[in-house]
Design a protein that fits this description.
With about 290 residues, the chain is mainly alpha-helical. It has helices spanning about 10-15, 35-40, 50-70, 80-100, 105-120, 130-135, 150-185, 190-235, 245-285; strands at about 20-25, 30, 45. The chain contains nine helices and three strands. Helix 1 (about 10-15) crosses helix 8 (about 190-235), helix 3 (about 50-70) crosses helix 5 and helix 8 packs antiparallel against helix 9 (about 245-285).
């Protein structure tokens, strides 16, 4: 959608509105065509664009890496095979450095998280008007192409990691050990009465710390990608403000895109490293 046919507020709102499928107030289900309809659908609505792009990029990752695995050669590897092997070595080194337990799931999990999030973040480098305009040409009212700029996607991934953390915490330490971690630390005492008095305090502190992990994991990624998306949208508005501002916007967009490459890579790396650390904590017995 061109910024020339909309006010700045309408342009920004359009680009930050997801293609939403949900239930209308009259009871029927369908796709929202206005921002007001999106708000009416409430919590149980589905962001179709987030689902589409995240699944598509996940499938692209699986296809690309599995293709390299099937056609890997011991001789001189292809450029893409070199690239994939470099990423796998990087992930293995990260896991060895941060995970002290023994679990064959951790390295594949870290690889999936890093590459998948990187690909979703990379969509932020596509010019903001290209895909939304093409989508409108075929009758799709909204289209956001950066899944990680949607808190539903980042919270979904963070909750998945959180559930794995809980599962392995209970599996490795047992129910008693897990409950003990939540109630017997950080304050300890040899006096049984004081020890009992410390239990609710410890539980409150440890429970808050436990719940904060998925919240911080998701909000960190979402906040950075949402801010990056917003900056690209604001720069795009400069193209309709005259030749001078348009030229300045083009230079600014190039600089921000180069800087943003570091941001999207760093955010994927941080999410992956924290996942490894949380899984290591789940496997550690005190």
């Amino acid at each position: 959608m061109s910024s020339e046919t909309l006010t700045s507020t309408e342009y920004i709102r359009h680009h930050l509105t997801s293609l939403t499928y949900g239930r209308f107030p009259d009871g029927h289900w369908g796709i929202a065509h206005t921002h007001e309809q999106v708000n009416e659908m409430g919590f149980w609505a589905i962001h179709l664009d987030t689902m589409f792009w995240s699944i598509l990029l996940g499938a692209l990752f699986v296809w690309g890496f599995s293709r390299v695995a099937r056609h890997a050669t011991a001789g001189v590897p292809s450029g893409f095979q070199n690239f994939v092997e470099g990423i796998v070595d990087f992930i293995n080194n990260s896991v060895r450095g941060s995970f002290s337990g023994k679990n064959d799931l951790i390295a594949p999990l870290a690889l999936t998280i890093f590459v998948w999030i990187f690909l979703m973040n990379l969509m932020d480098l596509i010019p903001v008007d290209v895909i939304p305009r093409l989508s409108q040409m075929i009758g799709i009212p909204y289209m956001r192409v950066v899944p990680t700029a949607d808190p539903n996607a980042t919270f979904g991934m963070a909750i998945g990691v959180f559930l794995l953390t809980l599962y392995y915490s209970i599996k490795i330490k047992g129910v008693g050990g897990f409950v003990g971690e939540l109630t017997l630390h950080p304050f300890e005492s040899k006096n049984p009465i004081v020890k009992v008095l410390f239990i609710p305090v410890n539980f409150f502190l440890e429970f808050v710390s436990l719940v904060a992990k998925p919240v911080s994991l998701s909000l960190r990624l979402f906040g950075n990608m949402y801010a990056g998306e917003m900056i690209f949208i604001l720069i795009a508005l400069m193209y309709s403000a005259g030749a001078v501002l348009g030229a300045f916007g083009g230079a600014l967009q190039l600089v921000w895109a180069i800087f943003h490459i570091l941001v999207i890579t760093l955010q994927a790396f941080i999410f992956m490293v924290l996942t490894i650390v949380y899984m290591d904590m789940a496997h550690s017995e005190h």
